[in-house]
Structure of 9-O-acetyl-N-acetylneuraminate esterase:
Amino acid sequence: MAQPAGSHSSLSVQVKPASARDGSTLVVEFREDDISQVIGSLLKGQSLLVLGEAGSGKSILGLEIAKRLGSDYQVAIASYAGSAKQTLIAIAESLGVPIETSDERPKPLTADQLRVEIRDDMNCGRRLLIADDAHRWPASLRYWMEELLRGKGLLLLLADRPPARDVFLKLPRMELEPLTPDEIRTIMYAEATAQGMAINPAKFADLQQRVGGNPALAKRVVHEELLGIGEEMSTDHRQYIDGTPFLIASLSAVGIVRFIGIGLGDKALYIVGGVATLLAMTLRTLFYSMNRKSTRLGK
């Protein structure tokens, strides 16, 4: 396999073994306890919110649950399709709910009519709606899901940092923990094998440092290594301008102003210096808090 120009990867080509397991199969295996816990809650009639960072395996978990419950439940698994109506149509088709009127000249149902039809069908029982990437769903659909909860609707919401309001506040929640280093290593080896690659052990350990416990990143870094993309070219991290030196300089300046005010007996100058000091300290705290909230995936 040809290396991209400028690549420093330590790769060689291997024949892909027939018994190789793909990354999704491994994620299901490693998330088995989580899957069992979610299914146990749903079988008790308890809707649930599953939290996890992007790439943690929420979608794979949702598909596996839909597969396992498909023989006993009518399951609809949907992501937001760009408009509320298109999302409702996808849900209706999965549940076998009509999307047109039943008169002689059928017309497409409106979004409001679809909401009513799906709600009535969900109230029949043995129905499950799995909302993938639920944090992206608009407020109108989230309010509608609250209405489903007030009936017999059974919901499984999969989300990454959802807003602290509406349906997200009303559901019990569980959070997917990062995978262990051994599990991540297994996924990376499987992905490398699937690509016909052999990675130098030292390089492999270096790649794993970029992944943390995130299975999607584990697969991605293998592809980046194949393409000769180093960490410095990856866009997973974010860069910030450190404003600390400017704030320190500002604090020093206002401190000098306060001392001048004291020396000259100028109360107005002293008060202005005090207010400016408090303002600078508040800005410093805000900048620090904002930078802490923006972290790399997998960490």
